[in-house]
Design brief:
Oligomer: single chain
Strand order of the largest sheet: 1-2-3-11-8-13-6
CATH class of one domain: Mainly Beta
Number of helices: 3
Mean pLDDT: 93
CATH topology of one domain: Jelly Rolls
């Protein structure tokens, strides 16, 4: 799925706006900004509004990353059940292309990906459902990402899809200048290694 594909119309619920994407269960989330001469205020998360949208409303960790250089790639990461996790990702400095890839075999969007530009200015967030791999490419130096996760890190359940796997052909806007040895070494997509059958029922 091309990263420039348009998402669905926005749905407003109180202090948050939710916009469906071509990946089933993945959402773009935006806090409604209320401003005055001092600046602006917006809510970034509300358990009640998330639950009303059918989304995860309980998060157990908050993580932060800093990428010094432009075109640093992190991903594509996910965890298998019973540690499959939901992520809510926001860019707090700089800019990045955030990508979600559907690996759930019973999902109508299985094998499709969607990307959106998250910046400190636009305040947009990506909601990544269980059973989807997630990653991003920074578009500016000193880019920071802050994200909530629903489950703790579980090394035995950790998996990854290589950023240039031809099975999915993610259209990154530039070749990565920096990528970890671990992320560059994930094998070509293999249903057994990548555990797709274990993610059946996560839709």
């Amino acid at each position: 799925m091309d990263a420039t594909t348009e998402a669905a119309p926005k749905v407003a619920r109180g202090a948050l706006r939710f916009q469906a994407t071509p990946v089933r269960g993945a959402w773009l989330v935006e806090g409604v900004r209320r401003g005055d001469e001092r600046g602006h205020f917006s809510r970034q998360f509300c358990a009640e509004e998330f639950a009303a949208q059918g989304m995860e409303s309980r998060f157990t960790q908050a993580n932060h990353s800093l990428s010094r250089g432009r075109h640093t790639l992190r991903g594509m990461h996910y965890q298998l059940p019973p540690a499959a996790e939901v992520k809510l990702v926001r860019c707090t400095a700089g800019a990045l292309l955030d990508v979600v890839l559907d690996l759930r075999p019973d999902s109508p969007s299985f094998g499709r990906w969607f990307g959106a530009e998250l910046t400190a200015e636009n305040g947009c967030m990506m909601y990544v459902p269980r059973g989807c791999a997630h990653g991003f490419l920074t578009l500016a130096d000193d880019t920071e990402a802050f994200y909530l996760v629903s489950d703790a890190y579980a090394p035995k359940q950790e998996r990854g899809v290589r950023f240039d796997d031809p099975r999915f052909a993610i259209a990154w806007p530039a070749a990565p200048a920096e990528v970890s040895a671990k992320d560059a070494a994930w094998p070509d997509f293999d249903p057994g290694f990548h555990g797709t059958e274990q993610m059946r029922g996560l839709v």
